[in-house]
Design brief:
Blueprint (H helix, E strand, L loop, with lengths): L1 E6 L2 H11 L6 E6 L9 E2 L7 H10 L4 E4 L2 H6 L1 H7 L4 E2 L3 H8 L1 H11 L6 E4 L2 H8 L6 E5 L8 E4 L2 H13 L10 E5 L4 E10 L3 E9 L2 E3 L3 E4 L4 E4 L6 H21 L5 E11 L2 E8 L7 H4 L7 H10 L13 E9 L24 E5 L2 E3 L5 E3 L3 E9 L2 H12 L7 E2 L12
Parallel strand pairs: 1-2, 1-4, 2-3, 4-5
Antiparallel strand pairs: 6-9, 7-8, 7-9, 10-11, 10-15, 11-14, 12-13, 14-17, 15-16, 17-21, 17-22, 18-21, 19-20
Helix pairs in contact: 7-8
The structure holds glycine.
Glycine binds next to loops.
């Protein structure tokens, strides 16, 4: 099969790397890809939102399967565009990607179908939101309704912070039209867990659990980022919690989308909070998580191309999804200053240290080739260094050892990825 992957970050590198192991993958393209993805796929310089150019390319190359990975093209209807041209595409159609694309939609869905989540109110005007906040309990959470690069969630400890947040989202429009409507949500406490799953419209196959580290600095300090590191599995996600979530959250979500006439095919990412009252949904994403994918896929035993096809064909009930009984840790190497101001274009050394080393992976998030053909930094998050281990502690030791193999100017990382493992 000829496969085209849409996207150009660490998640797409992990997907391309996994797809390249399939005997069915005769040729892989990635649009736009990056310098690391170029080691497993041919990168083509087409932006993720240019559906016309992607469809034209897919027709020219007789692509058999497209995998749309990022949220923005999914929410804007990339899968619909490929299907309209008669090209098989993995991912939710626009009417199902709304599960991530509108926080108000997903909260209303959960309320309607009794799926556990935090109490909330939705507001279309800043006046109404501010009036509500006069008496609402704090801490409180504000969420931009639309997509905001994962940064549209504000946790407000005081009423004043919450009012300032309404101004940021709805009046100053920090995230553009994503903040035209906001969800104001009860603050939940507990451990966060990310659970990715494959879905074919009716059947769901749950992958292994993971945990992300969203803040830029050690001790969960600093600004929110796209994710500074992950580990898998989460030792806090017990068999009992898994059973509860399958019965009350996972299958009910798939059934709810179907009942609404929004059949979901692709990956549902359940962002969960393990509260004292049981697991609750913090958020849904309609795609693989990043960097969760960088610890989940190296542990997956199945041929991912088979799983993609089963999701599209509605035959996921015939797939026995399996994961190795081991652990993985990913430490993101970023450019100092991320997620605000950072420089790009620094030469990255040490990448070849990963060649031929089983259980060690370097997934590129932001890299490119310079005019001399050297691999240079090209983003805030630059690389995801992932290592496997028999245990989470081994995997963490291995991952941090491997971060030392890489050098580039302004290299920055957190030093406490997986610290929670010690509390398990
Ligand atoms: N790691 C969180 C996300 O992918 O949105």
């Amino acid at each position: 099969m000829k496969i085209l992957i849409i996207g150009g970050g660490g998640r797409e590198h992990a997907i391309a790397w996994k797809a390249a192991q399939s005997p069915k993958a005769e040729k892989i393209y990635c649009a736009p890809g990056n310098a690391g993805i170029a080691s497993v796929a041919e990168c083509v310089n087409i932006p993720v939102m240019d559906f016309d150019a992607q469809v034209k390319f897919a027709k020219e190359k007789a692509i058999d399967l497209v995998v749309v990975a990022p949220d923005d093209p999914l929410a804007a209807g990339a899968v619909d565009a490929f299907e309209a041209a008669g090209i098989r595409a993995f991912g939710p159609r626009k009417n199902a990607a709304i599960l991530e694309g509108s926080k108000a939609f997903s909260k209303d869905l959960m309320k309607k179908y009794g799926i556990p989540t935090a109490a909330y109110e939705t507001f279309d005007t800043p006046q109404a939101a501010l009036a509500y906040l006069e008496t609402a309990p704090v801490p409180i959470v504000l969420k931009a309704d639309g997509l905001a690069l994962g940064k549209g969630v504000l946790i407000c400890n005081t009423r004043e912070e919450a009012k300032e947040g309404v101004k940021t989202l709805m009046l100053d429009k920090q995230f553009g039209s994503a903040g035209d409507r906001i969800v104001v949500e009860q603050f939940m406490t507990g451990r966060e867990v990310s659970v990715l799953s494959f879905v074919d419209g009716k059947t769901i196959r749950v992958m292994t659990s993971a945990q992300d580290h969203k803040r830029a600095k050690d001790g969960d300090q600093g600004l929110n980022t796209g994710g500074m590191g992950t580990f898998s599995p989460s030792p806090f996600y017990t068999a009992e919690i898994d059973a509860y979530c399958r019965e009350h959250i996972y299958q009910p979500t798939v059934d709810a989308m179907r009942a609404e006439g929004r059949e979901f095919k692709g990956v549902i990412f359940f962002g969960l909070m393990l509260t004292e009252d049981g697991p609750k949904v913090l958020e849904y994403n309609a795609r693989f998580g990043d960097p969760e994918t960088q610890v989940v896929l190296p542990r997956m035993k199945n041929d991912i191309v088979d799983v993609f096809n089963a999701c599209i064909d509605g035959t996921l009930d015939q797939v026995d999804l399996q994961f190795d009984d081991n652990a993985a840790v990913c430490v993101v190497l970023a450019s100092d200053g991320y997620p605000e101001h950072y420089e790009k274009g620094f030469v990255i050394s040490g990448l070849d240290a990963f060649d031929g080393k089983d259980g060690y992976y370097v997934f590129h998030a932001g890299s490119k080739f310079n005019a001399d053909g050297a691999t240079v930094t090209n983003g805030g998050r630059v690389l995801g260094v992932t290592a496997l281990g028999d245990t989470l502690k081994d995997a963490r030791k291995n991952a941090y050892a491997a971060t030392e193999w890489i050098t580039f100017a302004n290299k920055y990382m957190r030093h406490d990825i997986g610290k929670a493992i010690d509390e398990a």
